[in-house]
Design a protein that fits this description.
By secondary structure, this protein is mainly alpha-helical. It has helices at residues 9-26, 31-67, 70-102, 119-131, 135-142, 147-153, 156-172, 178-199, 202-217, 226-250, 255-261, 263-272, 279-288, 293-306, 309-325, 332-348, 355-363, 374-377, 381-406, 412-423. The protein is built from 20 helices and no strands. The two termini are 13 Å apart. It is a multi-pass membrane protein.
């Protein structure tokens, strides 16, 4: 039977991506590209940010109210955080091994490297360090003093904390809570409709964002740092196929099936360097794929703060790259220190703009690596960010399946039916 070709969102985004690269390359160095295209890209990102909080709040409240069992929810939370910690630790170790094995910073001619501007990251890092993000501060920060303010700032953990308590409250009051539950069900349905509408604008947003990136940095400026880029991309692919693929196999899932299900979202996340752009659709698809609503609603948003596999993997490679670039030979104990510090700092300031750069600024000094080295990779950070965003998305999507399997609540038949429906289209 001949499969029917459909010009799906993935193909539309791909066309936008290619056209953006062409326009950026043709008009390299022309400020008009940023002037006219940046507003389109900014509008698209803002539209996505606009819907993220209502979707998380409504779906999480529905999921928790549907469960209604604080013990079950606490057990799920504990398992989820343990899983996140184990996988992100694996990501850091894989990054360190890759950097030590292939040594991307060895023999780099620093005179050929163009310095980027890291002033904005330095200011953010200083602010973060003033706020002191130790373990206790992270725990205290989960509890919001003003939920409206937390929602306005898009602070994920306080939003999750409030939504979980609110959902438990609705479950506890029984029939009195049904009208409130109906309101949030209507909100969730309406917001997913809005999401589908916004996604139609995605190819234009991708075209604009990529066009601006290429016009600013050009293709030639990437060549001196090509070794680092190749290693980062190769390690990310290895991590998805081998590490995440191995985890998927352990729970009875084919990682390539999951990648096919998420192809639209992965292309969009890659193009925009933003996990937020795909959060609503990932939640929707994981539910269709067989994970229960309450697990999806809890695991995916929590993962955006605690399960940044791609970011932590990149941070490990970048730290070693800069050390090698300066001829600094880090001992095993220094690298272990780096792992431990990254494990804490990557959780403590999740959600901060340019988080990977900020984490590196806050971390490198602990093992004696010059912070100035970050200026040399600032120019290609956007392109590296695209790769690590994809890994973050795949890692969080897989986490929902692992948790659903762990809880014995994954719907295998639903998964098979959904995948077969995708097979009918190219």
């Amino acid at each position: 039977m001949k499969r029917k070709f459909k010009f799906t969102l993935a193909y539309q985004i791909l066309v936008g991506l290619v056209l953006g690269i062409i326009v950026g390359a043709v008009f390299f160095g022309n400020p008009s590209v940023e002037k006219y295209l940046q507003p389109i890209g900014t509008m698209f990102i803002n539209m996505i940010k606009m819907i993220v909080v209502p979707i998380i709040v409504s779906t999480l409240i529905l999921g928790v109210a549907g469960t209604g069992d604080i013990k079950q929810l606490g057990k799920l939370g504990g398992k989820t955080l343990i899983y996140f910690e184990v996988v992100t630790t694996f990501a850091i170790i894989v990054g360190l091994l890759a950097a030590n094995l292939f040594q991307p910073g060895e023999g780099v001619d620093m005179t050929n490297l163009a310095k980027g501007d890291i002033e904005q990251y330095v200011q953010t890092s200083e602010q973060v360090q003033k706020e002191d993000h130790g373990i206790l501060d992270i725990i205290v920060g989960i509890v919001p003093d003003n939920i409206v303010q937390a929602m306005a700032a898009g602070e994920m953990l306080p939003i999750i904390f409030f939504s979980v308590l609110f959902g438990l409250g609705i479950a506890a009051i029984g029939d009195k809570g049904k009208p409130v539950l109906a309101f949030f069900q209507g909100t969730a349905d309406a917001m997913f409709w809005v999401t589908n509408l916004i996604m139609k604008f995605a190819p234009f947003g991708v075209f604009a964002l990529i066009g601006v990136t290429v016009s600013k940095f050009g293709l030639e400026s990437l060549l001196p740092l090509g070794k680092l880029m190749i290693l980062v991309y190769a390690t990310m692919i290895f991590f998805i196929i081998v590490v995440l693929g191995g985890i998927a196999k352990l729970v009875g899932i084919n990682i390539f099936h999951l990648l096919k299900v998420l192809k639209d979202e992965l292309l969009l996340a890659y193009s925009t360097s933003s996990s937020e752009t795909v959060l609503p659709k990932v939640m929707e698809k994981m539910e269709k794929f067989g994970a229960p609503k309450d697990i999806v609603s809890f695991v995916v948003p929590t993962g955006y703060s605690f399960n940044l596999d791609g970011s932590t993997l990149y941070q490990a490679i970048a730290a070693i790259f800069i050390a090698q670039m300066y001829g600094i030979d880090l001992s095993i104990s220094q690298q272990v220190t780096l792992v431990l510090v990254l494990m804490v700092t990557s959780k403590g300031i999740a959600g901060v703009p340019g988080v990977s750069f900020v984490v590196l600024l806050a971390t490198l000094g602990t093992v004696g690596i010059p912070l100035e080295g970050l200026a040399f990779i600032a120019g290609i950070d956007r392109l590296l960010d695209m790769a690590r965003t994809v890994v973050n998305v795949v890692g969080n999507a897989l986490a929902t399946i692992v948790m659903a399997k762990w809880e014995g609540r994954f719907d295998q038949q639903k998964e098979e039916e959904y995948y077969l429906s995708l097979e009918k289209t190219v």
